[in-house]
């Protein structure tokens, strides 16, 4: 993308976008709630599906919505921190998995097809990893803005649901550092096994997260500064896509630990900025539960997944499809001639 086309040329552009957020449609929400109350079921019997459908109706401005064009976008990035031995897999797997996505062989390809979602994959400068954040900031301001802009541009205007996912060997280390910078606590609270570290490597990883936070301390007071200091290109791109979705009133299903860490930059900068998002699932990555609690989002699913790629969120698309099929398709008590309770 030419620089002149980039959505974010400066940090001020990002602050402006965050200051100017769309809100849900209160009338559609009230009408959806009224409809939910007269559907042929005991009140509340569809549990969290009911609030889920009403939430979606409010963001779409339609009290009886369908879900026709779910879009999954996966961003891939490489991380200098991998040189410190923080992953069970080598950095080359990031590009190899991008090839696997293109060939249709990854889990997310199967899940996208299962739930009728489009799938776009954006590799971000894979042959130019971010800097090792124990040595200095992972990204320059311009690198971070370029990745945010790529994410912003990746969202289809006519999508009616967005799932953002990622692929990036080493990115659970970045996500742990970002979560710790934003939400406080000890590095070990946020550090998990990623692709499968043993106990020794896990405690070394927490030490590396801690060193990275000390090294970048001057940048961490500001959420955007934290994103560029210890994040990565795919994290910034996910954040850009999530912000664009808010501007287009496209509801978002968040995926696992890395996706949630990236999204939480906006929640920290402006509480409520993620009101258009739900948490798709609870990842097995240590720290994800704590992070979901920090942003106040209970997960829809808890299946022990720790894959990334948007996989947990893609499964939750099926839950939302079910919620909307019931909400928009069920008969009312009056229509069905069923006696109200
Ligand atoms: O989504 C999650 O919660 C999640 C948890 C653990 C690992 N991952 C995936 O595994 C990769 C990062 O793991 P690691 O060990 O290389 O930091 C990256 O490609 C992620 O998509 C993803
Ligand atoms: C094989 C593999 C597939 C992945 N998909 C998302 N993260 C991943 C990490 C690895 C190692």
Explain the layout of strands and helices.
Layout lengths: L10 H9 L6 H12 L10 H13 L9 E7 L15 H12 L3 H8 L3 E6 L17 H14 L6 E7 L3 H13 L3 H4 L8 H17 L7 H8 L2 H15 L4 E3 L2 H13 L7 E5 L6 H8 L3 E3 L9 H19 L3 H4 L5
Parallel strand pairs: 1-2, 1-3, 3-4, 4-5, 5-6
Written description of the protein model:
The protein has 341 residues and is an alpha/beta fold. It has a single domain (68-323), classed as Nicotinate-nucleotide-dimethylbenzimidazole phosphoribosyltransferase (CobT), large domain (Rossmann fold), CATH 3.40.50. Helices cover 50% and strands 9% of the residues. The protein has helices at residues 11-19, 26-37, 48-60, 92-103, 107-114, 141-154, 171-183, 187-190, 199-215, 223-230, 233-247, 257-269, 288-295, 311-329, 333-336, and strands at residues 70-76, 118-123, 161-167, 252-254, 277-281, 299-301. The protein has a 6-stranded parallel beta sheet, sandwiched between helices. The model has no long low-confidence stretch (mean pLDDT 97). The site of 5,6-dimethylbenzimidazole has 8 residues, from helix 4.
Question: What characteristics describe this protein?
Answer:
single chain, 341 residues, alpha/beta, Rossmann fold, six-stranded parallel β-sheet, 15 helices, 6 strands, 50% helix, binds nicotinate mononucleotide, binds 5,6-dimethylbenzimidazole
């Amino acid at each position: 993308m030419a620089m002149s086309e980039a959505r974010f040329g400066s940090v001020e552009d990002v602050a402006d976008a965050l200051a100017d957020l769309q809100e849900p449609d209160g009338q559609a929400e009230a009408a959806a709630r009224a409809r939910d109350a007269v559907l042929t079921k005991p009140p509340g019997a569809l549990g969290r599906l009911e609030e889920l459908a009403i939430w979606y109706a409010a963001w779409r401005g339609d009290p009886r919505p369908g879900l026709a064009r779910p879009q999954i976008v996966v961003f891939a990035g490489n991380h200098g921190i991998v040189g410190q031995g923080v992953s069970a897999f080598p950095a080359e797997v990031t590009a190899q998995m991008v090839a696997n996505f293109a060939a249709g062989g990854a889990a997310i390809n199967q899940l996208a097809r299962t739930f009728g979602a489009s799938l776009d994959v954006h590799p971000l400068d894979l042959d130019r990893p971010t800097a090792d954040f124990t040595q200095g900031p992972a990204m320059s301001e311009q690198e971070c803005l370029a990745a945010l802009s790529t994410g912003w541009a990746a969202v289809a205007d006519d999508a009616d649901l967005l799932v953002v996912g990622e692929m990036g060997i080493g990115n659970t280390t970045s996500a742990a550092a970002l979560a710790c910078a934003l939400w406080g606590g000890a590095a070990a609270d946020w550090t998990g096994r990623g692709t499968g570290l043993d106990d020794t490597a896990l405690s070394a990883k927490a030490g590396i997260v801690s060193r990275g936070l000390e090294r970048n301390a001057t940048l961490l007071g500001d959420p955007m500064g934290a994103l560029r200091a210890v994040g990565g290109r795919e994290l910034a791109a996910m954040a850009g896509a999530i912000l664009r979705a808010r501007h287009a009133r496209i509801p978002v299903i968040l995926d696992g630990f890395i996706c949630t860490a990236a999204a939480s930059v906006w929640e920290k900068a402006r509480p409520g900025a993620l009101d258009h998002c739900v948490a798709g699932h609870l990842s097995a990555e240590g720290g994800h539960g704590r992070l979901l609690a920090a942003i106040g989002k209970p997960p829809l699913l808890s299946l022990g997944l720790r894959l990334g790629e948007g996989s947990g969120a893609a499964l939750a698309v099926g839950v939302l499809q079910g919620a909307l099929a019931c909400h928009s398709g069920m008969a009312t008590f009056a229509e069905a001639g069923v006696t109200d309770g």
